[in-house]
Amino acid sequence: MKILNKLFVFTSFVIICMLLQMNISYAQTQTEKLLEQSEAKIKANKFKEAVKLLDKAIELSPQSAQLYVKRALSLRSLKKDKKALQDCKKAIELDDKSTDAYYQQGMVYAAMKDFQEAVASFRQALTIDKDYANAYLGMATVKQEAGDAEGACEDAKKAQELGSYEADDFVKKHCRR
Asked: pTM here?
């Protein structure tokens, strides 16, 4: 009888583990689908729809920094800066090495006209990846708006060196050759 009880417990444990693994796999698959759908909505400038999809994805995978970064981008585009900033902070809490989270946080601060915090966020991204062109371009945009044309051009040229096509446009428009 003891052997049967042990066998039952062991078999039950194995079945529970398999069910948990299936549930995790399902959640990951669903999250990936929702992320793909949200990215398509973002590209189509359908940010409200993207936020709804990302809300569902975050319910399934609340530990994914990437999902919070994508939702922050969408919220910022909807001019919901405070909510976007909360998502950036959550993404950084989950992954403090996410250059995209710091970049997006910088963009939110820039939208809020908090240029000092924006530059600090872009610089934090650069401490993680010194070749992160978007961070240089973000700093250039903020510095230009704050009246530091020389600093803006330095950062834009660095972004340009790193292959940013958007930096090409910035340099042509704002910088002397």
From this structure: 0.83
